Model the fold of this input.
Amino acid sequence: LGRRRRHGRRQAPELSARRVSMAAHGPALERRAGRGRASTSATTASRVLRRATVACHSRSPRSVPAVGLVRREREASGREVRACARPTTTTTTTTGAAGEASTSYGGELTERALDPSAQNPFPTELPRGTTKREVSLLVRSLAQSNHEEVWPRAELMVTWLESQGGEARSLVDAWMYTEVLRSFRKRGEAGSALRLYGEAAARRPRLRLDSHFYAETMLALSKGDSKHAAAGEDIWNDLLRRSNAGLVTKYALTSFLCCCARSGDWRRALRAFHTDFYILQTTEPNKKGVALPDVVACTALMKALRAGGQWHKGERLLQWMYENGIEPNAYTFAELIQLLGDCGKWELVLSHYYEMTSSKSERESPSRRLRAPTANAHVFSATMNALCQSNKHDECREVWGKMISQGIEPTAITLVSLLKILERKHDGRRALEYFRLVQNRNEAEINIVVYNVVLSALSKSECAGEAKEIFEEILESRRVRPDRVTYETMVAAYAHVGDYRRADEFFRRMKFASYQPSDYAYVGRIKAYAKNDMWRECVSILKEVEQEDGVQPSVHVYNAVLQACFVTRKWELALKLFARMEEKKIEPNASTRALLSKICNEAIETCEDRQRQAATLSAIAAAAGALAIRTGVF
Done:
C-alpha cells in the first residue's frame, strides 16, 4: 500500500475486504481474543487506515481521491465489506487521534492564495501546524494556475517563506523552485528564470538543488532569445562541477541541448553529447557499462545541428543511433528532414521519406537492427517544406496526396508551415493553390492565422487583386474575422504595387475597426507613396507618426522615409533625417547602414557642380561621421 511510482507519486490506495474488516472490527477482536494476537491485528488495521489517508493526500490537488467505506451488506454467503473510491476535486479532512476532523490542504492559507481577488494573499505569519506537503501542493497549484493574477504568486509564496525564517524557511526546498521554473517556461519568461536561478544558487548548501531544477532552468532559457539560451552553458557548467550528486541525467542533457539549438552553438552541443555525458553521468546500480543518451536527447542534438546547418553530422548521428540500438522516432526524422531541406539536399529528403512510407518488411534493413518509424503528420509536413525550399513542387504534391491517402488530414499548423516557405520565396499563387486544397477538404482548420499567411504571400508576390478576394472572403465568413495583422497586410499588399489610395483606404478601415496601427502599417503607406516619387507625403506620414498617441517612430519608419529620399535623390533631406534620428536616440540597424552607404555614393556620382559636389560630400561626411564610427560603414 502506498508504493511509490517512478515519478514520485503514490498509487491510489486499494483497500481489500479483509483489511477493511480488520480496521472495522479491531477492538472487537481484541476483546474476544485477549491482548496477544488481536492487538496486533488492531495495530495493523490502524496502520492501514493511516497509510491510506496519507496516500490520499499525496496526490495532485486537482484530482485527489477520497476513500469511503460502503456500508456492510448481509448477503447469502455471509458478511462482506467493500471499499470504493469516490472521485472528488478537493481534499477535505484527515482523522486525528481524537477522532475529530482537522483541516488539511485546502485551509485558509490556500483559499486566500488561490483567490484572484485577494489583495493580501499571504498572512503575516505561517499558520501553526502547516506541513511541508501542504505548502508544496499550494506552490504547485499556484504555479499551474492559468489565471494571470494567481500564477505569479507561486514565486511570491516561496519568497515569503524565505523571508519568514525559522520553521517556515525550512519548508522551502528545490522542488518548489522547480515548480516556479516550470511556470516561467510555460510562459516564456526566460529572464525571470535566470534571475530565480541566481537567487536559488546563492542559498546553497542549505538548499540542495537537484537535477530537475537545473533541467527546468535550462528549458526555460531555451524558450527565450539567443542571449538567454547562451546563458544555459553557465548553468550546464555549474551542473558539471557539482556532478558528484548524480546531476548529469538524460533529462538535464536534453535541456542543455535545447539551449544550444536556440543559441546556434552546435559545437558545444556535440561536446556535451559525446564527452560531458559520458565522463560525468549517473549510472544505475548493478548495471555494467555506461548509459547512452535516449532518443529525446538525440532529437534535441539533431535540432542543434540544424541550427548550424550540419547535415553531414546529422546523417552520422542517425547512423550512430542505429548502431547503438537507439530507435529513432518520427520526430527525429522530422528534424533531420528539415535540416536536409535547409541545406538543399532534397534527394536525401526523399530517401528518408520513402524509407518511412514503405511497407513494414521494406523498412526492415538487414544492415540495421532497427527499422525506420512510420511517417506521421510532422514527417509529411517537414518533407513538403523541404521540397518547396528546393522548388520541387511536383514531388511536394505527391507527398501531399500520400498524406491524404493514409488518412492524415492536413491541419492548420501543417498548412501554415508550408505557406511560410512559399511566402519567403514570394510564390503567392502557389501558396493560394495549397490553401484552396485544404479549404476544400477541411474548412474547419482554416483560422485567421492561415488567412494572414496567405495574404502575406500574395502581398510579397505583388498579387493585390488575389489578396483583395481573400479579404472579402474573410468578411463573408462567419467563423473568422479580420484582425490588425489582416488590415496591415492589405496595406502592405497595395504598397508593393504602388497603389497609395487603396493603402490609405485600408489604413482608415483599420482605425475604424478600433485597431491601433503599428509601425508596419505606417511603413506600408510610406512605401506606397515612395513608389510614386511623392517624398513630401512620406515626410508628412513621418510627422503623423511622431504626433500619434501610443505609437513611437521606429527605425523601420525612418528607413522607409530614407528609402524615399534615396529614390527621389533628396540628399539634403536624408542628412536631416539622420540628424533627427540621433536627436531621438533611435539606433540605426543594418538597413540604415546600407542606405547611408548608397546615399553617400549616389550623391557624389550625381552632383554636376564641383563646388556643390565638395559641399555635399563635406556635409554628408560631417553628418554621417559619428554614425559611421559607431556602425562601421566606412
In short: The longest strand covers residues 65-69. The chain has 32 helices and six strands.
